Amino acid sequence: MTSAQLRIAESLKFAEDISKIPGLRRKIRKEQESLQVQLRESAQEQYDATRLALSSLMDTRVTVGEVREEFVNIERAAEDPRCFVEGFGKVGQVSRLHRSFVQTLEMVNQLRDMYDKIEYCEALLQRDRQDPLGPAPNLLAVHYSLTQLESFRNETVLQAKRSKRADMETLNRYFERLAGTIESFESHYLHLASNLIEITKAGHPSVAVKVAKIAEMEGSRDEKATAIRLVKKQEAELASKFKSLQADARVLKFYRAKVMDAIRASAKNALERCKIKYQDPLQVLNNLGWVYEDLILIEDQLASQFPPDWKIYPVFIKAYHKAIYDYLKEYTASDPGAGALLAIAQFVKAYEKNMTQELEIPLGLLEPRLLDGKTQELVEDYLKLIVVKMNEWSSNIMVMETKEFDS
């Protein structure tokens, strides 16, 4: 039952309420008319609001179109401002001339100051070279200054590529002294890398930190130069728009690889000095205790000075092992006597025991194995030589006794 029906039922509960029906009819009709008026007014309001919204939407559409046209005009103006700004060509030309003037003036001032900076670097470098096993206090300062000068040289040479040949020759002469100073620095740097153990023994293990730091910085610059060259090769048009992608004059230095090579060479040179000192090959093998001492020193004091990813301790282990491997290979190829073969076999056994048990070095780092793992064959060769010598000795005795019997 609806609410209206409920209201009528409430009003007509009793028989005498029938007389009220005409009044109720008039009341309901008035309420109906009032409700219809309210509905018509609400519908008119909704209609007016919808019409206003549609009108605003049309106005907005027109405004968006006008904004789009303005953006198109702005974009056209940005693409070619000379069409809209009077005298823009002259303004741009003056701006370019001003930039060129500023760059030229800056270059001239740097050229004037360059020799003073080179003399400063040479003086600091000379102080460090006077103490070849010292703390190298000026190494990082010299490297920083030379790096700045080298970058200036590369940029200057790049900008002068289109100059006359005579001008380029003059410019190259200006930088000759800088090239010599850089070469002297690299020579000193590699000397330090080759003598890290002796420098550590002298009480200056921190020099290794400086050696590694310089190698890391140069390595980053090598990577950047390589990346720029790849970009220029693949995106020539893009590279031509950016000055930072144009400096390709840097020569890759590979300092980290050079440090590793210097370490390997230092191990080989140390063994060569031992050979010169003792002369006799067996005496050399009997006096290789310094190898174990150096490795202990490296593990305790030197390895921690390098970044972990260098794995410098295994590098030294492999360097010393390779030097001893090459020495034994050369010695056994010279056909040593029976006694030498036995001594070599004993040395190999003791060496591997000391390295793996005493120093706790993994056997995998001792590759290739000394004598290529053929120690047993060496012992067998020794036994064969003993048999041969015994046979020769027996034959000689028989010949001598036969002669004595015949006489």
Describe this structure in words.
- The chain folds into three domains: 3-77, no CATH class; 100-253, no CATH class; 259-381, no CATH class.
- It has 407 residues and is an all-alpha fold.
- The chain is elongated, with a radius of gyration of 47 Å.
- The protein has helices at residues 3-11, 21-79, 88-129, 139-159, 165-174, 176-194, 196-201, 207-234, 236-239, 255-278, 281-286, 289-302, 312-333, 338-358, 375-406.
Please tag this protein with its features.
3 domains, mainly alpha, 0% strand
Largest sheet: none
Percent range for β-strand residues:
under 5%
DSSP strand count = 0
CA-based gyration radius: 47 Å
List the helices and strands and how they pair.
Blueprint: H1 3-11, H2 21-79, H3 88-129, H4 139-159, H5 165-174, H6 176-194, H7 196-201, H8 207-234, H9 236-239, H10 255-278, H11 281-286, H12 289-302, H13 312-333, H14 338-358, H15 375-406
Helix pairs in contact: 3-4, 3-6, 4-6, 6-10, 10-13, 12-13, 14-15
State the gist of this model.
The protein has 407 residues and is mainly α. The protein has helices at 3-11, 21-79, 88-129, 139-159, 165-174, 176-194, 196-201, 207-234, 236-239, 255-278, 281-286, 289-302, 312-333, 338-358, 375-406. The protein folds into three domains: 3-77, no CATH class; 100-253, no CATH class; 259-381, no CATH class.
